[in-house]
Amino acid sequence: MTDRHPDGTGLVEPRPLVIRDLLARGRDRLDRLSDGQLLDLLEDAVYHERKRLERVPAPEAELARLDAASRAIVRGERADRQTAAAELVRAWAEEIHGRFDPRVYRFATSILPRGLNALLSSPSRGLLDRTHTPESRIQVEGELAWVRELAAEATVILAPTHVSNMDSPIIGYALFAAGLPPFVYGAGLNLFSNPMIGWWMHRLGAYTVDRTKRAALYKSVLKDYSVRALVTRHHSLFFPGGTRARSGALERHLKKGLLGTGIAAWQEMLAANRPDSEVYVVPCSLSYQLVLEANSLIEDFLAESGKQRFIITDDEFAQPRRIAEFARRVLDLDAAVVVRFGAPLDVLGNPVARDLVDREAQAVDRRRYVTDRDGKVERDEQRDFVYTERLSHALTEAYRRDSYAMTTHVAALAAWRCLVRAHGSSDPFRLLRLPAEGRRIPREAFLAELTRCMERVEVGRVAGQWQADLPGSAEATLAVALDRFGRYHRTRALAVHGSDLVVEDAKLCFYYRNRASHLEGDS
Amino acid sequence: MKVGILGGGRWGQALARLVIAAGGDPLIAYEGKRPPHVLPSTNDPALVPPTCDLLLVATSAAEVRRAICDARPGPGNRVVVAGRGIEPASGRWLTEVVTEASPVLRVGALAGAAPVEEILNGGLCAGVVASPFEEVRVLTTAALHSSRYRVYESADLAGVQLAGALVPVLQATLGMALSLQGAGVGLHALVLTRGLEEATRLARAFGADPLTLLGLAGVGDLVATATTSAAWAAGRDLAAGKRDQGPASLARAVHGLALSKGVELPLIAGLVAVYDGQSPLDVLASLMSRKAQPEHR
Predict the structure, then answer these.
(1) For A224, what's the count of Cα atoms within 13 Å in the CB-facing half-sphere?
(2) What distance in Å separates the CA atoms of residue A399 and residue A409, rounded to the nearest whole number?
(3) Average pLDDT over residues B7-31
(4) Are A254 and A241 in contact (CB under 8 A)?
C-alpha cells in the first residue's frame, strides 16, 4: 500500500521515481500490444506530432525523437519500435510532471487564501476593509461536511463545471474555505499564458496537459499520470467538460478520458487489496453572475472556426488588467460566484451513502461490478467505458441540479424569449443579426416574460431541479440584472433606452441566456 | 455455462431448450406448484442469481419488475430481458426496470424472429442481443447460439428495445387496416412501409440506429410473427369494433414516448384514437386525406 503524503500530496516523491513508474506503466502497455497495434500507435504518434510541429517551433530533441520513431516504423523490428515509443513516453512523462515543484507547492497552498483575498480586495476600500470578504463574494456551499468525511477516508475526484479560467483559482479558494485538503489537477498549457495567474497554476499541484498533442500515446501517458496520482491517494480535480463551455450552456457531454481514470485507479487498488481503495467523484457547479471571458467565448462559439480553435490564448484571461477590473467590479459583489459541492457519486455513477456503515456495505457490493466470483479483478476496458459513460450522465444531471439560475441568466433568458416571439424565429443567427431597432423590447412585455421565467425557475427550484436565489419581483430582478450587465462588460447585454429595454449586445445576451437554456428544457 | 431463466412459461421453456442446444445448463425459476416438464427448475427465484452469472428474463413486460424483485440479482449478475415492450405502469424500458429494481448495471435485451412454437418444435430461427456491454453480448451468444438458433450482437440497446415495443403495435395496426372492407395489398404495403418510417423516426429521436428497425428485432420479428400473432388478431378485432384486447397500453406508451420527443407518428396515433373510441374507417379516411409530403423526414 502506498501511503498518502502527510501534506496531502504523494507526488512529493523523488522525481525520478515518478518518471520511472510512468515509464514502467507505458512499457507494460506497449508489451501487451500486437505488432500491428504497436505500429499503428507509433504511426499515430508521429503523424500527430509532425502535424503539431508544423504550427509551433520544434525543439531539436523533440525532432530527434520523432526521427527515431520514423526510422523504427520504416526499417525497425518490434524491439526498435518499442524503444522509440518508450522514448516518447519518457519525454511526455517528464513534460507532464515537469512543472510540479513540491516545495513551492507546499508554500503556495499555505498562502493561497491570502493571495486570493488580495485579488478580491477592492483598492477603493483598502486592504483593511473587512466588510466584503472572500467568504461573502465567493459563496461556497453544498455537501461540504460529507465531502470532508470522504476525503479523509478515501480518494476524491472533484469534477467541476468549466465556465472560465477563473475557475481554477476560485476552486482553489473554495477547497480551502470548505476545509478540504489541496487537490492536484491537470492544467492546460494556455492557463499559463497569464503571468500572474500562471504563477499560481503551475505551483498549485498542477500537472501539465498539452491539448495540442493529439497522439493516442500521449493521452495514455496522461491517463497513467492521473491513475498514479489517484492510486497514491491524491485527491484530483478534472474539468470533465474538457474546456470552457464556449456557448455558456451547462455541459451536457463530458470527456471520458481523465474521468475514466477513476475506475482504473479503483480497480488497481482493489487488485492490490488496499483497504482504502474507494474513489469518489464529487460534482461541483460554478455559477457566475458575470463571466470574465464571456465576449471571447461566445465569439469563438459563433465563429465558423470556433470548432477548430480549441484553445484560446488571447482572451481576457491573458490580460492582467482585465482580471483586475473583473475582480474590482464583479467579484466585489455579494455572491458574485457560487461554488456548490454536490452529492458524491462512486466511479460507476451511483449515489454514495451518507452513513459510514452503509457506505462500507456499498463498497463490498460495488466490487462485484468488476470482480469474478472469487473476488479477482477482471480487467475489461469496454465495460469500464460504459460505466464511465454512466458516471458522465450522473454528473451532467448533478450540474443541472446544483447550478444557480442567477439574475443575469434569467433576465437574458427573458429578453431572448421576447426577441424570439417578436420575430417569430428561434434561429440564433437570425436574431443575432437583428438591427438595433429590432432588439428593442417594450418594458411591460419584458416584465411579463421575466415574471413567467421566474415562475418557471421557482417551480423547478422547489422541485429540486436546480438552484435559484432571485429577488422577489420581476422589477427587482431586472434592476439587479441591469446593474450587473453594466458593471464589467464593455457593451451591455441588456440596457434601458427611454421607456424600453434594448438588447445592446445580442451575443452577450445569447451567452447568458444559454446558461439558463435548460430551465426551459431547451438545448 | 449455467444460465438462469426467470419465468417458467412457454417462452422461458423455449429459451431453456435453446440453452441446452447451445451446450449450456439452464435453471428456470417458475411460479406456482407445477414445474416445467423435464427442464431443471426451482420455485425459489432467489436461488437462481447466486449460481448463474447470466439471467434471462422471460416474463411479460408487466411482470419483469416483480420477477427481478423476487430473484434479487446482485451487482455480479448480467441480466438480459427477453420480452417485448415497455412496462405498462411506468412507461419505462424493461432494462431500466431491471436497473431500478436491482443493483444490476450490466443489462441487455434479446429480441428477434423466433416464434415460441417454432423453437419448441425444433425449428430454425434467430435473435439479436443488444447491450452496451460487450461482455453481456458475448455471454448471451455463448449461452444461446447453436446450429438451430443464431444469435447476432448489437450495441444498439435503445433500437432493439424500441423495435420490441413497436412490433406488436405495428402488427395491430396492420391487422386492423387489412381487416377493413376493401383493403388490399396496396393498403398492406402502405401501412407496413409508413409504419416502418414512423419507427425509424422514433429511433432517431432516441439516438438509436434506424437500421436496427430493419433487422431481426424489427422487420424480422414483424415477418416472423405476422398474421399469427395475438397483436394482429387484436387489430382484426378492432376493425370489427372490439376494443377490449390487444396492445392498447403499449400503443399509448409508444405514443406518449413520441410526444415527449416531439415526434409525429400518424399511424400509431390513429391506432390510439381507435382504442379511444373513434371508428377505424374514420381514422383511415383522416390519414388518407393528410397533405402530401416527402417520403422520409
Answers:
(1) 26
(2) 16
(3) 95
(4) yes
Query: Cβ–Cβ of A383/B106 closer than 8 Å?
Result: yes
The residue of A368, A386, A390, A391 whose CB has the most chain B CBs within 10 angstroms, and thus the best one to mutate to test that interface, is A386
Q: Quote the Cα angle for A391-B136-B124, to 5°.
A: 150
What's the topology of domain A102-402?
Glycerol-3-phosphate (1)-acyltransferase (3.40.1130)
pLDDT band at A3 (very low <50, low <70, confident <90, very high): very low
- DSSP for A456-490 reads HHHHHHHTTSSEE---SSHHHHHHHHHHHHTTSSS
Disruptive mutation site among B77, B134, B137, B139 for chain A (greatest number of A CBs within 10 Å): B134
The verdict on a CB contact (< 8 Å) between B75 and A389 is no
Long-range contact pairs involving A111-116 (C-beta distance under 8 Å, separation at least 24)? A112/A172, A112/A173, A112/A176, A112/A200, A112/A204, A113/A173, A113/A176, A113/A177, A115/A200, A116/A169, A116/A170, A116/A172, A116/A173
Assign A293 a pLDDT band (cuts: 50, 70, 90): confident
| pLDDT digits 0-9 by tens, B119-128 | 988 889 999 9
Q: What is the mean pLDDT of residues A57-64?
A: 87
Domains observed in chain B: 2-155 (3.40.50.720), 158-288 (1.10.1040.10)
Record the cell numbers describing residue A78, joined without a space: 518490434
Provide, as residue numbers in chain B, all residues whose Cβ is less than 8 Å from the Cβ of A353: none
Yes or no, beta carbons of A382 and B74 under 8 Å apart: no
Report helix, strand or coil for A140: strand
Contact residues on chain B for A368, CB-CB shorter than 8 A: 74-76
Give the residue among B115, B172, B179, B143 at the shortest CA–CA distance from B19.
Answer: B143
* B47-99 confidence digits (pLDDT tens): 999 999 899 999 999 999 999 999 999 999 999 999 888 898 888 999 999 99
Confidence category of residue A101, pLDDT binned at 50, 70, 90: low
The domain ranges of chain A are 15-89, 102-402, 405-520
**Which residues in chain A have Cβ-Cβ distances shorter than 8 Å to B76?**
368-369, 371, 373
pLDDT at residue A183, as a whole number: 85
Which of B133, B153, B157 is best to mutate for the A interface (most A CBs within 10 A)?
Answer: B133
Q: Do B132 and A386 touch (CB under 8 A)?
A: yes
Facing B75 at nearest CB: one of A368, A373, A390 = A368
Neighbours of B227 (CB within 10 A): 11
Query: Rounded CA gap, B75 and B117, in Å?
Result: 34
B chain contacts of residue A366, beta-carbon cutoff 8 Å: 75
* A350–chain B nearest CA distance, Å: 10
Q: How far apart are CA A234 and CA A206, in angstroms?
A: 12
Q: How many CA atoms lie within 13 A of A198 on its CB side?
A: 15
Which grid cell sits at A344?
Answer: 458524491
Residues on chain A touching B75 (C-beta within 8 angstroms): 365-369
DSSP E strand stretches across A242-293: 279-288
C-alpha cell at B88: 405498462
